[in-house]
Structure prediction request, 553 residues.
Amino acid sequence: MVDMIVDITTAFVGEFPFEWNYIRSIIYVSLYVSLVAVTLSTLCSLPIALLVGFKEFRGKALLTSIINTGMGFPSVVVGLIVLFAVSNQGPLGSLELVFTPEAMIMSQFILAAPVITGVSLAAVSSVEQNVRDAAYAMGGTRLDVALVTIKEARYGIATAVLAGFGRAISEVGSVLIVGGNIASSDGTSKTRTLTTAIQLEARQGQYETAMILGAILVVLVLLVNAIVVRLGSDDGGYR
Amino acid sequence: MTIQRREFIAAIGSGAAVGLAGCTALSGDDGDDGGPEISGETLTLTTTTSTEDTGLLDELNAPFEDRYGVTVDTVAQGTGAALETARSGDSDVVMVHARSLEDEFIEDGYGINRRDLMFNDFVIVGGPDDPASIASSDDASEALNAIADSESTFVSRGDNSGTHTKELELWADAGIDSETHGEWYVDVGGGMGEALNRASELDAYTLSDRGTYLSMHGNITLEILVQGPVEDGPESLMNPYGIVAVNPDAHDHVNYDLALAYIGYITGPEGQEIIENYTTEDEQLFFPEALSEAPNFQQYVPEGWSASDDGGNS
Prediction:
């Protein structure tokens, strides 16, 4: 899938002023880190959104506003916190995660999870109570009720996932801090993403190259959006 | 309903499998492929933006990686941040250019086996119209005084890098308190490239290392107004680079063997020759200084240190 996206992107953008291997590996790292982070965030966020959306409990409003606050958490601060956690002196120091894609996944996970939780929560809450009651009345288990709700709220949830993906892939502050923007001497990216590469090119005054990388990033986000919308529209020929 | 549930679970399952497969594929770079014992290891080098932005490190690292079958991860941060990363044990070796900060790093017990590596020089650059008329000056203090007196815009790195450290030293030498600069003093808080770009946009003066200036020469409108010692300018604009291994006694997991292999390579004939031959637009950017017939003891110890100063070493 990554290869396919790379090929389509290059068809859009055309000639590159840099080595093919360099640009390919940067796109690969960007997509790998963001897609894994968003997948993991979705797996965590969706159950939380369903749970909070269904249950009435004291402090629900407070919890909701905490989640919504998390959506605007500054990425540089997240980067610093993750850096302290994975740095050698930090609690996860023995795992040697600093300057690795895995550390970048951690920080993007923290950034994307509140967005996905918050937007899905809004979507799930808007599914009417009587739909859930009907599913329950027809003998559905709690899981069935949850699935019906997900199905009803699928557009909202898709929007949530896309918003989370958008936040992850366009983010530069935290991946620069925890990833270190590393590319090896043969031009293969290890922790260099499109955003950090743009930052590097701009720093060197290569604004044209930076603009081309920016165009690639926009095309990538467009493509991922198109794919998700496409997946959302044919839901097993149900309607 | 049941079928849909199964589909849902299958989708979740395959999603998780894809995610995990990605994890193992990318994190499996430390596998043993039967080569020599050092093969496959990773050396983390934190360094300044100038060595990375000029492209020198790619040239230097490729032969080292080939010879030992290892990977060098270069993190370009600026001298202050590079040393800070090394202090917390997140890098194995540092290549920086601020002797006072290097000395502090060694004195605090975090660095060991320092070597002089190479040098170039700093230059004071500015727009072609030169409002403070410093172009004729061959003295850095005089030039800075002229800039301050005419309140011409001056761009400062402001990022605790080697160049920023040097800039502050030069202001102090010129007898000007850099805390009290007016609005003409612009702190960009970024790398050399950013500072040069900003200075170029503002038609301002700035202090740059010659290497980064030359490598960006085509993209900016700035000219060299005060030359450094490479072109017979004042000695105060000297820019020496050092390389220091992280002390394995301070951080026992650092890759000390590989760090010393790297220092050996880069200060040896092969590395020094690459530095000597590295050019941008036919100009040599860095001058090797590690090879010398005569002993140079001062490169191993903090500046001005001697055994008799230190009670513990008698």
